[in-house]
Amino acid sequence: MATASHGAIGADEAPVGGLGGDAALGVLAVGLERGVSLGIALWLPRHLGLVDFGHYVFLLSFLGFFQALPDASLEAVLVTRVARARAAGAGVAVRGAVVRGLVSLVGGTIALAVLALVTRDGGLVAAGAVAAAGFLAVAATPYRVQLRADGRLGRYVALLAVQAGLAVTLVTLAVRAGGGLVLVLAANALAACVAIGAGRALAGCLGRPGEERLARALLADAWPLAGGTLLLLGAQQLLLLLLLRLHGGAAMGVYGAAQKLVEAVGLLPQALMLSVLPALARVAATPRAATAGARDAARVLVVVLVPAVAILVLWAEPVLGGLFGPSFSASAPVLRVLAPTALLGATGLVLTNLLVALGRQRALLVATAGSALVAAALGVALVPAHGGPGAAAALLAAMACGQALLLLLAPTRAAAAPVLGGVVRPLTLGAVVAAAVALVAGPPSLGVALLCVGYPAALLVTRTVTGADLGRWW
Hints:
- This protein has helices at about 20-45, 45-50, 50-65, 70-85, 90-120, 120-140, 145-150, 155-175, 180-205, 215-265, 265-280, 285-315, 315-325, 330-340, 340-355, 360-410, 410-420, 425-440, 445-460, 465-474, and strands at about 1-5, 5-10.
- It is an all-alpha fold.
- The protein folds into 2 domains: about 15-20 and about 225-474, no CATH class; about 45-210, no CATH class.
- Strands 1-2 form a two-stranded antiparallel ribbon.
- Helix 11 (about 265-280) packs antiparallel against helix 12, helix 11 packs parallel to helix 15 and helix 12 (about 285-315) crosses helix 17.
């Protein structure tokens, strides 16, 4: 791989070739995992009733909070270690699954104890125990981690498809049998358990556990990620609580519509990281190669996302009105401020995965904590007077400050600077093209067409993106 700022890199150091095909599989995987869960959640209100559905949403959210360590954090660290171990990775995956399962069990037990203490509702606690079993089944399987780390995304997608299909089938049967909340949660948990067997068939025998002292190393690497995740979630929840308390449910609905659109755009970076994280881990012994790979991934994401973000900013009203109905056009001021967070989220996700691959989670936690503090402080200052746009501005500024801190901190500067430097040209060019399109009077359809043709053309003409880049990425 060759990059403008790093020179030639050997073939064995090129971690992100073929981003296009990997992204397609990643999008399919994320769509299966998130889309099926969302579809079930949207379908259940018609059958569970208001109270049971409210308990369903609450339990998944409440228990998910206590699964931050085994879910996102330990999984990312474990994928990194398995990819780095190469031939010995199977044993690492097995012992890592044991560690994740135990941590999930502890987290679920604490959550249920808190739930029992606060609600004193035995039925709700029993339903929570069934849901916690589903989280445990997902955490305790080594096969998803192994397939990701090996780069076998086709089989990874097949495994998710099996689990999603089972979940839909079993939940449907539970509802038709007249089952309530507990039976629906049991159907989800059973699908996760059966998927363990499917993972065994797709990944093959992983052999005996390896690395006897892995548990302590995994937890030491994962707790800064979990801490950062909880800090960011806490800051975002504070913004939403301020908005709801000071401006009411209507303002929350307006903000929520814009937020869902931005989250949809953010699925692409999440999908791409399924393959990028293990690829970076495999070359992490050469930080220069890992940084060059992350720089490439960030450039790809910015090039793809700039038109989508520009459309949300320039034509917020027709987009919102067309998707959610005319009354949600009032979300346009929020969406215009919130849309650029999709770009910051993409570069931030790439940097997070790079720093995890390089083992710099503790420095990452410092930047994340700074970002959370900025979000909370600006939220308190802006939300009372400005409502939804103020909350969006607080989040945007906090994300920008978090990445600025990565440039300032000594342990992260060398990794962050090339990645963020690599996206300056495509971002600047995108802003210029979007501004030029905005000056052209005409219907939104004409503007979108001009943007989608003009931006790629400008990238190629200015050689911001070259033919060699396109060939390598795809």
